[in-house]
Design brief:
By secondary structure, the protein is mostly helical. The protein is built from 5 helices and no strands. Helix 1 runs antiparallel to helix 2 and helix 4 packs antiparallel against helix 5. The chain is flat. It starts with 9 loop residues before the first helix and ends with a helix.
Length: 132
């Protein structure tokens, strides 16, 4: 999460962790998979706890906690996001090809996700080239 103002979105990250944990719990309870729900909640609350305890001790953990408070951290966040997008694009294309090769029904899912990524990338380039 990119911060505004002072560059810190720590509270937002923690809120997302809690909401996601509660969503896991709700889904688990609604589907009769209470264990899944409790484990999902524990993982998300544990992640929030790790971020809270170690965000001032580790720069990387601080950035995961949403503390992109200076230009260097914002640049690192941008580069890490770009790297992640590149990895996911490769995974989607390879997943699509493998799904086609083995006749999996997942081929269309991979195709739609890859298409969505391509459209989002093209739209971002178009927008940023004019406004960024």
């Amino acid at each position: 999460m990119a911060g505004r103002g002072n560059g810190s979105s720590y509270v937002g990250v923690i809120v997302v962790c809690v909401v996601a944990g509660l969503a896991y719990l709700g889904i688990g309870l609604a589907t009769g998979q209470t264990g899944f729900g409790l484990v999902g909640l524990a993982i998300m609350l544990g992640y929030a706890l790790v971020l809270t305890v170690f965000r001032h001790r580790s720069e990387a953990v601080g950035m995961l906690a949403g503390e992109t408070t200076d230009e260097r951290r914002r640049d690192l966040n941008t580069r890490a996001t770009a790297f992640t997008g590149s990895v996911l694009a490769v995974v989607l294309v390879v997943g699509f090809m493998v799904s086609l090769a083995i006749g999996s029904e997942l081929a269309s899912t991979f195709a739609w996700l890859a298409a969505l990524g391509a459209v989002a990338y093209a739209a971002a380039l178009a927008w940023l080239s004019r406004h960024g």
